[in-house]
Each structure stands twice: as structure tokens, then as C-alpha cells.
Amino acid sequence: QLYDIGVIGLGVMGKNLALNIADNQYKVAAFDLDAHKVQDTVQQEERERKQYLKQITEPRILGCNNLSEMLSKLEKPRVLLLSVPAGAPVDGVCKSLIEAGIESDDIVIDTGNSLWTDTVEREQRYSKDFAFFSCAVSGGEVGARFGPSLMPSGSLTAWNRIEPIWQAIAAKVDAKTGLPIERFEPGNPVIEGEPCTTYIGPAGSGHYVKMVHNGIEYADMQLICEAYQLLHQGLGLTAAEVGDVFERWNQGSLNSYLMEISADVLKQADPLTGAPLVEMILDKAGQKGTGLWTAVSSLQIGCPAPTIAEAVYARAVSTQKSQRQQLNQLLSGPSESIKVEEQQAFINQLENALYCAKVSCYAQGFQLMAMQAKEQGWQLDFAEIAKIWRAGCIIRATFLQSITQAYQQDSELENLLMADTFAKGLSDKQHDWRIAVSTAAMGGIPAPCISSALAYYDSYRSVTLPANLLQGQRDYFGAHTFERTDRPAGEKYHLNWSSDRCLHKV
Ligand code: 6PG
Asked: A Pfam family this protein belongs to (predicted)?
């Protein structure tokens, strides 16, 4: 018998994707360089089948010993899903597949967090050997197992071939409510609802969209962390009390997966000492690079995404613990921590501030995707992108439904802040946002993301910015010229600052 799809790389993501595909009645051939991982995947399939699917007796996953064996077991044109670390390993497997006899109409799908430009290059490089396709995956281990958000891009022929599998394995959203349909049981996939996958566009676009998803993820996480520090260090709430506040916030407009897990993390006691676990976790943040790529891309293309960049910097500052310890002895701050008149009132203001900052950072991410799409000639459908982020992915949040609706009403929306619902929401809540930022500043508690999000909001609502003085400075030292407010755009002027101070049209 022939198998529907080959999964190469059986780490956490690969194994769970393979099991998810098998649950959706597709037959999987699986391979990993580490034979133990192959065995582990096959055994897990068997255990789950015996427990949950008693009527099925045949194994749904075949463990392969090598790539040649895998290729011989697959239906043609073959579909191969790669779940290996981004970078050199992807090319390593592609090379091995060529050696093993892959054919030109076979499809190889990279599901890792690859750099989008690498994906563009790979589609070209392997075009004679096979169809290189990509599909960015969000949702971590549980998402991969029971329904991730999938961002496929590349040739439409390849997409048409894999679309039914992708729709089956993706997370599902209730079409009426826009909320995730969650079911975490092996052998029993969610079949109703709207699947969180859509064809994003040409090669690289899916990975770009996932990269921006991750940039937003970095900012969203950091925003929640800043709120935690304000409540814990500032107001003196215990970790568990902050967890309670987050649980309450999670019932309202801040409802999101990241808020939910943050509450859970804060309420967890350390199994070793009994102290709040969060206080036993070293405050040095790791990163694998996708947030950094987002910030770099925003700088390269000239699209402001300050909150995403600040989130990357916040992780960097966190790693410099010994410098922070030294400077703590040298630099003074306010004598008292934050001062608030009424604790509950401040908590409510912070909730509004967090909502505003979150909208601001999503606005930055969507604007970045729009600018890059224009540059690359991609036709990105932002309503669809917001839709497939409503479930399965790490940044899933109730308010993605409002983003979906905003783009459904106006697909050309230049900036999310222009959508009625967000313009009104932020205008109503901006006062509380300012209280949160100023309280943090006066209390000496860093809140780089909440503040930079506000600076973004204020910059975009400013008709006049001090760039006039900046242009004057540039013209002064470098004769870089400036345009005049009373002359047609594009007309350049220079003043002879160091001599006769005459004005010249250049
Ligand atoms: C997802 C996540 C995932 C990412 C991790 C780790 O959407 O499932 O974005 O792809 O790799 O969250 O990212 P960092 O190690 O950079 O925090």
C-alpha cells in the first residue's frame, strides 16, 4: 500500500504533525536520522490507536529506515513535509532527497521557522529537482498535535495538491462566534468550523507573515510581562494575585492564549521550594531570531515597528544581568515605587493601557506586512491572515475577530488604527494608557513596549513632527537640502548656513 505523505524530522513539531495527519485519515510515512525518534512516533501512534480508535487495526504511521525507503512508499507525485531546524538542515535534507531519487513533480514542504528570503531562494534553487513549497506553522506542540495555524506559500499547483490535508489538520474556528473550537483528544479531530489555513501567496510570503506573527508574539509577551512587573514590583501584588488579575482580564477584551498561560505560569508553585515558580525562574530571556528578523525587516523597509523592536531589546537587556546588577548600585531612581491613589482603579487603567498597546503593536505588524507585500508584489489578504490567527497559533486572541472584520470592511486599510472600532477604542482609553506609562516612568519601572506603543500612537496622530528641525540640521551640516511647506513637493532647497545664509533652489 502507498502512503499519502512523508514526514521528515520527528522532533516535537514533526512527531505531533505526523500524529495529527494520521488522526485525519491520511497515511503517513515517517523518518528521522535518529531511529529512536522514529520508534517513539510509531509507538505513540500504536498506543493512541489502541486506546482511542479500537476499530482501526492497521498502523497509520510507517516508520522508515532511510529516505529511499520513504520515497518508495509514497503515492506520486509525492508530498514530503520537512520539520527540521531552520537554516543548513533544510538544505541538508533537500540534498539527501535528491540523492535518494526524488522526482521533479514531488513536493517538499518546509514547515520550520525559515528566514523568508531563504525560502524564496530555495524555490529557485531546487526548481529542477522538485517543487519546493513552504508552510509556516504556529501553535507549538499542542497546536501541531490538535490543530495549528498554517501559513502556506509557493506554487499554486503544490497548494492544490496539499490543501485538503492542510484544511483537515488545521485548527478550527466557529464560523458564527469567531472563537476556537478546542478538542484535545487523540483520534478525534475537529472537523467542523473554519480551518486556520489559507494560501498566503508566492514563495516566501508565508514565512514573512509567520515572521511578523512572531514579532507580534514577542511584543505581546513583553507587554504582559511589563504589566506583571508594574503590578508585582509596583503595587506589591504577589505572583498569584497578578495571576488572578490576568485571569480576570482574560475574560474581557484582552482575552488571549498568551494572557491565559501567563496567569497559569504566575499561579504555579515551585515543586522544589514551594515559592512561586516564576520567582525561581532566572530573568534572562532566550530567543531564536524571528523577532529580531521582524525588527530588522521593519528598519530595512522603513516601516515603524518600535514595539516589536523594543520587545527584542527587552530580551537583550534581560540577558545582561551582571551589568544590571552593577548599575543598580550606581544609578539612582525614584525614592518610592509607584504611587497610585486607588489600587483597583489603577489595575483597570492598566488593563485599558494594555489593550491600547496591543492594538498598536498589531497595527505595526500589519502595516509591516502591507509594506513588504507592496515591495514584493504579493497580494496579501489581511482579513484572511487575521482569520487564520484566531485559533491554533500563539497570538490567538478574541480581538483578532475585530481585526478580521476591520479588513473585511476595508481590505485596503492603510493602518489598523484607522478602523472605526480601533480608532474609537483607543481614543476612549488613551488617557488610561498615559496614566500607565507615566506611573511606570515616575516609579522607575521600565515599560519599553507599553511606552513605545503609545509613542507610535502619538506619532501617527501628529500632523506636525519635529522632522522640520531635523531636515534643518541635515541641511546645516551636510547640505542635504529640504522641501518647503509653501512650495510644491519635490522642490529642494539649501541654505548657505556657514556663509551668506542665502537660500538656493537646488
Ligand atoms: C509559534 C512560535 C514558535 C517559536 C517559539 C520560540 O508560533 O508556534 O512562534 O514558532 O519558535 O515561540 O520563539 P523564540 O525562541 O524566539 O522565543
From this structure: NAD_binding_2
Matching CATH number, 467-505, of 1.10.10.410, 1.10.3210.10, 1.20.5.320, 1.10.490.10: 1.20.5.320
| Rounded CA separation 416/423 (Å) | 8
Q: How far does the centroid of ligand 1 lie from the alpha carbon of residue 214, in Å?
A: 7
Q: What's the 450 CA to ligand 1 centre distance in angstroms?
A: 21
**What does the alpha-carbon distance between residue 60 and residue 192 come to, in Å, rounded to a whole number?**
22
- Of 147, 131, 130, 136, which Cα lies nearest the Cα of 112? 136
pLDDT tens, position by position, 412-436: 999 999 999 999 999 999 999 999 9
Atom of ligand 1 nearest to the CA of 214: 9
Q: What ipTM does this complex have? A: 0.97
Q: Where are the domains of the chain?
A: 5-203, 207-460, 467-505
Catalytically active residues are 210, 217
Yes or no: say if 20 and 48 are a contact pair by the CB < 8 Å rule. no
Whole-prediction pTM: 0.96
Instruction: State which ligand 1 atom lies nearest to the alpha carbon of 149.
Output: 7
Residue 367 Cα to ligand 1 midpoint, Å, equals 21
Cβ of 398 less than 6 Å from ligand 1:
no
